[in-house]
Structures are given as structure tokens and as C-alpha cells.
Design a protein that fits this description.
The protein is of the alpha+beta class and about 350 residues long. Helices cover about 25% and strands about 30% of the residues. It binds uridine-diphosphate-2(N-acetylglucosaminyl) butyric acid.
Amino acid sequence: MIETNCSLKPFNSFAIEAKTEQLFHLKNRTQFPELLVHIKQAIENNKPILILGGGSNILFCENFAGLIIKVELSGVEVTESESSYLLTVGAGENWHKLVTDCIEQGIDGLENLALIPGVVGAAPVQNIGAYGTEFKDACESVEYIDLDSGQLHTLSAEQCLFGYRDSIFKTPAFKNALITQVTLKLSKKWQPQSRYGALNNLKTDEQITAKQIYQSVCQIRSEKLPDPAKLGNAGSFFKNPVVNQDLADTLLALHPKMPNYPQADGKVKLAAGWLIDQASLKGHQIGGASVHQQQALVLINQGDATALDVVKLAGFVRDTVQQQFAVELQHEVRFIGAVGETNLSEVLKNV
Ligand code: EPU
């Protein structure tokens, strides 16, 4: 079914008002032929196409002048071998519900990724990660439909080229790849991942269970990260920047307590939230948008923010951090303009 001229407010966790010319709800695989007809029409009419999951990592900067496909494919199939569980999950399933159901059924391994908003099909795109674990650690393969040809393809985890908040699905060649389902492999020989920062205080003896890690992660996240159902936001707005050793040393000489995470390639990852916090930007407000008081990495919609409020605030945060620390912040949230993906600098040029 296709809707026309409809509001996107319910479909983005920032709760920003924007409209799309067309919205197609993809609920099951039998709709593929119908979907491909709409795609063909959109291409013939030079209309942009956007694939939308849970809308939890997106900022609609203006009305969308084309076709949005809302992925709502459901279903979870579990098979098991002697050593592991294999889960094949529809791209439209809610990620946190999957994690919770797994933990309840004694299928361990996703607990560090609890409470990450969004749908399963979006998880590989930016290789979601938290508390020392990433989606790629559990990924076996990803199936997608090529919207140009209508062909289904499957990529192994290795072929997905996962990186920090990155994968092949972010490259232009995969612009028309709609992820249909994901297969996860979870070992029956579960190993806790509890060494990361905030989870350090958990006991590391053999008694620790996946359920305890799950509960801790849920507790930490709900204390620091605002619930999008109550306060519009898209999680971490910026990526943690990776800088060269010289700059890290200079900053560390000035701020000995600055969090820093040396990388395998000799570079150093810094905490964007710390930099924004140190620049005294917590609570900073432009229009209806502000920097979250409890976690500076999150920008929030206080209720009536426009996309422009968020864009201006993001620009102010980026520029302030650049001036104070000579570090360039890149946004993690994807910016969507009238004709497709754009970015903060582009949008600010037209303000
Ligand atoms: N910090 C501050 N002030 C702040 C925020 C953070 O001083 O306002 C400091 C913290 O004290 C800590 C450091 O910065 O020393 C890092 O903060 P934290 O451990 O909370 O994690 P993060 O780097 O802010 C990342 C991910 C989160 C993920 C957490 C937990 C990115 C961009 N963000 O946040 O992911 O949940 O680690 O692993 O990598 C998301 O992508 O939407 C997201 C929430």
C-alpha cells in the first residue's frame, strides 16, 4: 500500500515534522513485485528513493520529494547446531525486542547491545555498537534486495566490510540495496564482554550471566540516554573522532584526564561527548533543540524543534569544538534532504 503526502513525524525518533510525497510500507516479501513497480515509476519521474528502518538515526532536514520505503519485514527463525544458534531475522524486527527475547530464551551474546533503538535491518548499515561489542561480532550474513534489478543477494559478514559505525551498505554502490533479513550466529560457549568502561564494576568471575550484563546495560543506557518516546533524539549525534597522536598528545598535556583510546593504526580515538561537555555546551539551546544535560553527545528535541533548530545547534557544537580543541566532529546521524542524503555543511550553506 502506498500513502501520499504523509507526515514523517511518527517515523523518526527525533520527532521532527517533515513530509514525504510517497510512503510504501514493506510488510512482507510478497510485496516485492509491487514495490519494484513503484521504484521504476519513481526512477522514471526522477524522484529520489529512501529506505527507512526505525528512523532512529536520521534527521529529516526538509520535506522529502520522492518515495520512502518503510521496512517492516518481520519474523525470527532459530536453528541450532552443537556449538551455536543461527537466527534469521526480518529486517523490520525491533532490535531491542530481539535482544530481550534472546536473553529470555537463553540465547546469549547480544546483551551488550540492549536498548539500542531501531530495527534489525539498520544494525548492519552502521554496524551498531556499545559497551565493547559491535553488530559485526554476531553477524553471519546479510540478505538484501537490489532495487534496480529486483535480485536478492547475500553477503557474508566479511563481505560487509564492517568498520566503526561503518559498512559497505553506506557506500554509493549500495544506495539501492534494501536489507531484507539478517542472520546472526551466537556461540553456545558464551563469553562475557564486561571490561568496557561503565561495565567494569560488574564482577568478572565465572558467575556473571548474560542477563546481568543485559540488565546493567539497560540501566546505564536509561540513566544517560533520553528515551526517544519521551524526548525526541537520535542517540549519539556525533561520532567519536579519531585524531593523530600529535594532536592527542597536545590535548592530553592540557587536559590530562581527557578520555583517549589508542587505536591499532597508531591514531587515537577521543570521546566526542567529553569534548562537547568540556566546551560547556551541555544544555545549550537553539530554538527547540538542545544539548542533553546528562550526555553531551545527544542532541534533543524539546518538543517543538524544527529541523533547522537541530541543524543550527549541530553546526554550533561542531564549530565550538573545532575552535577549542582543533578537532573536527563528524555527525553519526544521517541527514536527509529533499532529494536524498546530505550533510551538515551542505545544509548550513543554504541556511
Ligand atoms: N563523557 C563526558 N561527558 C558527556 C558524555 C561523555 O565527560 O557528556 C565522557 C564519559 O565520561 C566517558 C567518555 O566521555 O569517559 C565516553 O562516554 P561513554 O562511555 O558514555 O560513551 P560514548 O563514547 O559517549 C559510545 C557510543 C554509544 C554507546 C556508548 C557505550 C559513539 C558515537 N557512541 O558513546 O552509542 O552506547 O559508547 O558503548 O560511538 C549511539 O551510537 O547512538 C550510541 C549511543
